Amino acid sequence: MSDQELLEKIAQKDEQAFRVFVEKYHVLVLNVCNNILNNYDDSMDISQEVFIKIYESIDKFRGESKISTWLYRIAVNKSLNHLRSKKRQKWFSSLDVIFGDDSKKQEKEIKDNSPIIGEQIEANENRIALHVAINKLPDKQKTAITLNSFEELSYKEIAEVMMIPVADVGVLINRAKQNLNKHIIDYYKNN
Fold first, then answer.
1. For the chain, what is the total number of helices (H) and then of strands (E)?
2. Residue 115, pLDDT score
3. pLDDT the model gives residue 172
4. What is d(CA 113, CA 43) in angstroms, rounded to the nearest whole number?
């Protein structure tokens, strides 16, 4: 069944067609959400919200862009809205909220004193530094760099998702890279 047929059946509230649609695009939506939120559980929740929004507003899809572009746009917007609401509730209350229980796991690993521990700690520290730096970026820069680096979208595709000119995408990505560099250096200076 083609995407167009799926959309037509979903518009008629065909639940089987909707299940097929979700199965086809769930990984794409989940990856976009997770690359922005850096939290798998939140990403699962937001990806469900994305599909609920699609089911409720399928008649608003005009076919002017690809379905994947429409999905990216909804996933990015829902993820950014989630981040904004989280920031309003509490501004990064702890690293556990963002990265799970890795800090407790890391403490246990340090006590083992095996040679691999140093590499694991360094890799974990680098991952934390990157996530902290990405989360400090302005929303538009974060979205552009995430879609480009993690989702491997072209500048043109990112422009469609963000509804901005292609030239602006390049500017956002360059600024994001500069800011990431600065934030990562600051992270290591302060930690």
1. 10, 0
2. 53
3. 95
4. 34
**105, amino acid identity:** K
What's the pLDDT score for residue 143? 92
CA distance 31 to 150: 9
Which tokens go with 76?
Answer: 């990015």
187 contacts: CB under 8 Å, gap ≥ 6: 129, 132, 133
Burial 97-134 (b: 16+ CB within 10 A, else e): ebbeeeeeebeebeeeeeeeeeeeeeebeeebbebbbb
Domains and CATH numbers, the chain: 1-91 (1.10.1740.10)
d(CA 171, CA 177): 10
In one-letter notation, the amino acid at residue 60 is K
Helix (H, G, I), strand (E, B) or coil at 48: helix
- pLDDT means per 10 residues, the chain with 191 residues, are 86 92 94 90 94 88 82 91 71 39 45 58 78 90 90 91 93 93 85 72
What six digits make up the tokens of 71?
């999905």
